[in-house]
Specification:
single chain; globular; Thrombin, subunit H; QueA-like; alpha/beta
């Protein structure tokens, strides 16, 4: 299939730059896979689609303040860093802007998140084929621990902010209420709609709630540059599926109840581990490069809660595969649902509304 097949027009007016007043006030478009029927609901109506004995699986990775700002030693040119992966303490891969002006051997002095100069400095090492830089940090014993005062929330580029604007609000709202182990450089956004109260109500109704961890990185949000999607190569992302979650999901499937995944990252973990173990799950710590696109099949997930995704993205390709497992018509189902969402004025992308595919 072609990457261009997953394009669609979207007005800038439908891109959500701010979160809804309350997390669970988002809209919910429900797409039924069997016949393409669409329902327009509110996110709290999710309760009506979950049955006792079902399992709800969420990604509990915590977003780190991975956007750093600084200037080149010598020239004083401004530089922005987006941390991608930690190799060792103070040794990170990062996206650097403007990348062409930064070369191995350059030093970048960092500001804190209030715009004040610090003693922390990054030495540019190697550059890889994609232009990402390996950086060695000095002036701090552990950069990861210093991000609380150095870093900013790594909002995606389509969310427009003036420097420092609503910084405190984004620190809270670009994070799920159940976020725990730090490691993501982008939010698992489907989970942003859940409140503690809604999760407790889901549990009271007999639904089993459990967690996986996938630290969101380039594998999730890197654009597809190849014209044929089969030629796109996913970046590795770290994940952990614990023993308790594996047992819960296996028991749920054995009892013929359904598994609802919150977000494409959760789907990727469950389907990665299932593919490694003949359709069953077991406790696993590893990395995944799985790329799910039509006509992919799914061994674990029966229902998907997700957001509205960017054109031509691997996320849109995954939900298209899930809309019609083992077939190619899921693309048409999803694009028709997106057309209806646009007509109805749903809000798109990270801070936008939600979609349930069942």
């Amino acid at each position: 299939m072609r990457t261009a097949d997953f394009d669609f027009p979207l007005s800038d007016a439908l891109i959500a730059h701010e979160p809804s007043e309350r997390r669970d006030q988002s809209g919910l478009l429900v797409l039924r896979r069997r016949d393409g029927q669409i329902e327009h609901r509110s996110f709290t109506d999710l309760l009506e689609y979950l049955n006792p004995g079902d399992a709800l699986v969420l990604n509990n990775s915590r977003v780190v303040p991975a956007r750093l700002r600084g200037f080149k030693s010598g020239s004083g040119g401004r530089v922005e860093l987006l941390l991608l992966a930690e190799e060792h303490t103070n040794d990170w891969w990062a996206m650097v802007r403007p990348g062409k002006r930064v070369r191995p051997g350059n030093k970048i002095k960092l500001y804190d998140n209030q715009g004040r100069e610090t003693q922390v400095e990054a030495m540019v090492g190697e550059k890889n084929a994609e232009g990402h830089c390996r950086l060695r940090f000095t002036g701090t014993t552990n950069l990861a621990a210093a991000l609380s005062f150095l870093g900013e929330v790594p909002l995606p580029p389509y969310i427009v902010r003036s420097r420092g604007a609503t910084f405190v609000e984004d620190r809270e709202r670009y994070q799920t209420v159940y976020a725990d182990p730090p490691g993501s450089v982008a939010a698992p956004t489907a989970g942003l709609h859940f409140t503690d109260e809604l999760i407790e109500e889901i549990k009271r109704r007999g639904v089993r709630v459990c967690f996986i961890t996938l630290h969101v990185g380039l594998g999730t949000f890197a654009p597809v540059k190849a014209s044929a999607i089969e030629k796109h190569s996913m970046h590795e992302e770290r994940f952990e599926l614990g023993r308790s979650t594996a047992r819960t999901i296996n028991e749920t499937k054995e009892n013929q109840h359904r598994i609802f995944a919150v977000g494409t990252t959760t789907v990727r973990v469950l389907e990665t581990v299932a593919a490694q173990n003949d359709g069953r799950l077991k406790a696993t710590v590893g990395r995944t490069r799985i790329f799910l696109y039509p006509p992919a099949d799914f061994k674990i997930v029966d229902g998907l809660i997700t957001n509205f995704h960017l054109p031509r993205s691997t996320l849109l390709m995954l939900v298209s595969a899930f809309a019609a497992p083992g077939e190619t018509r899921g693309r048409e189902l999803i694009l028709a649902a997106y057309t209806e969402a646009i007509r109805k004025g749903y809000r798109f992308f990270s801070y936008g509304d939600a979609m349930l595919i069942v």
